[in-house]
Structure of Aspartokinase:
Amino acid sequence: MASVVQKYGGSAVTSPEQIRKIAERIIQSYNDRNDVVVVISARAGETNRLIEMAQEMCPRQTGSEYDLLISAGEQVSIGLLALCISSLGYKVRTYLGWQVPIITDSLHTRASIEYIDPAKIRADLNHGAIVLVAGFQGIDRSGTITTLGRGGGDTSAVALAHALGAEVCELYSDVDGIFTADPAICDDARKIEKISYDEMLELASQGARGVQIRAIEYAKKHNVTIHVRSAFTAERGTLVVKEHMPMEGVVVTGIVADKNEAKIAVLGVPDKPGSAAKILTGLADKDISVDMIVQNVGQDGLADITFSISKTDLEKAHQITTQIAKEVNAREVLADRNISKVSIVGLGMKNHAGVAARMFTALAYNNINIQMISTSEIKVSVAIEEKYTELAVRVLHEAFKVDQCSE
Amino acid sequence: MASVVQKYGGSAVTSPEQIRKIAERIIQSYNDRNDVVVVISARAGETNRLIEMAQEMCPRQTGSEYDLLISAGEQVSIGLLALCISSLGYKVRTYLGWQVPIITDSLHTRASIEYIDPAKIRADLNHGAIVLVAGFQGIDRSGTITTLGRGGGDTSAVALAHALGAEVCELYSDVDGIFTADPAICDDARKIEKISYDEMLELASQGARGVQIRAIEYAKKHNVTIHVRSAFTAERGTLVVKEHMPMEGVVVTGIVADKNEAKIAVLGVPDKPGSAAKILTGLADKDISVDMIVQNVGQDGLADITFSISKTDLEKAHQITTQIAKEVNAREVLADRNISKVSIVGLGMKNHAGVAARMFTALAYNNINIQMISTSEIKVSVAIEEKYTELAVRVLHEAFKVDQCSE
């Protein structure tokens, strides 16, 4: 049977008109003889409303009570959508996480899915029902409600597609698919027809919108085909698949920029073992992720340690770093909000030498100074001054001829 | 073990300050060495918000999707209260209806509780936890969420008290207890210390606030002691118990008025068998409850049929009755919004003749005309012109010396 799991984000179920549109779209898929399972998030703003209530009540709560509270939002969404589909004369069945059940571990607010029992949903599909499932939530083995963390609805959808052996997992949002670069920045940006899990992972990690990282990892592990597409057009979007080697000569699949980066430099650190570790451990203890790291040791035996973090963490990170800098007798700490990260991603890099060099040359030719670099097998990221972000994306898109179709 | 089930209404959990106050009250009960189980309703307005959403989506829906939607409110309340109690350093366990489980029949939006398994809650109490349970909701035997109808939280609390063998079920609200008459109308109104289930049932049926009728019926059936009391004072309220025969000479326990009454008179109905039945069946088919009914047959062989309904149903009832009146060749239909119902209730009536006569005399002496009458073994209700409501309550309170303590 040709079955499909569709996931709609919270922005698609905000108003009654939107819910009606989504309902019609779902019914159309159903009438095309697909077995349709739909995963819905909480209405946009609903989960934030619940989180605000919780914080007003008592800040910094993260246990099972918190998950109980914030999982109420999906119940409202699937209730409304079910009412609508049912009123249009179609048979509909709804499932909260515990009703499927979607079994997770017990790490509240960021639980991982361990097992999904597809039996009841399969029976409903066989009886001709459209099945709606609340995303983002599950239960642990003791029967307590858990949530999967922000964006967990994507993961719910991919995991359900795997459990049901669905042909494809369609992730609907307000973007048309994955682009070679942000079309708002780059006129030549082209929608990518197919992309590999690894490339998608790198793009998402470097700031591309469209799919949650954990959902891509899950899809990669279980070989679930993802279709990233728009809820507002019938056009095909981007397929995320296992293997997709680009044509000979195509090196870069996509370019992505992330302005949510900031930089901290610790200058004049006595070059003793453990100084860098002390700083990085201090940040990790406060749940601050460090992205790029550079360490230069001067001839005077003093090192400069520079690293990037997200802009939202800058203030806290600056405070912590200043404290530790004193302890390790560093000279000074500088913070800089005005940076961004631009990355090129492509499986083709594996087989092409000199990709980084070509990137740096193109940027240098346009007087864009590189402050930090990090690389993986299929990605090169650079930190640059924030004001050059859009220019850098256009320059690289041109340099690597990403606009030319790789299909 | 001295265990107590406490139920707090939705108006008690609206603001963070209120939730904190309730939390402190619960903790105080806990520290007094009670095993405490708390039933919470949705925050005031929350369920209405969800119902409005549903109606905007598609009016007149009442199935399982509707119950799924409107049961989201309690989840928010118990989540917030649990966060608060937990942040004050006390061990807390939460239960949604399905987690207890509270098993109901499958009559969505007005399900009845069939069975409650107390095992998990008992275990939590034995481990020193305060237990919070979402009121108003359950699941049927197929695992679908059900709701108990408006005010179902009272029934959840009484049923839990029964299942747990609790000493008492405390129903908290913003009233101090059950009064001999509305203190806003009658200066001499006195809080009743103890009242029987049957009296409480009559008072509630005739419009008294405080306890849901179905909860009283459940309590009566299973002999659960109810304590109706204020959430804002430490004073004792009113105990609702099995048997409570008043002292010799006390006839009336309470007086209650209901302004939500309206009257329809169908005049000149040919006195043929089935005419009255046709009208009443037509109303019942549209879910309109008829309260008092009077039929007079004149010498001309034409009957007048008069009945009372709730004011909110008047327009619909008028329309239906006019239609049927035509079919049975009645002369005309009159509708009257300006009536109210005043009732006297008391177990003492069983042993006292002439109670109704004494009531009618007192009203007549004050020029209050009686339009309709209905009686039961422990109640007499009269319909009067609405503007006399308060006067009638005061006159009857005085006439039956209800202000004099019956304890």
User: Anything to note?
Assistant: Chain A has twelve helices and 18 strands. The first strand of chain A starts at residue 3 and ends at 8. Chain A has a mean pLDDT of 90.
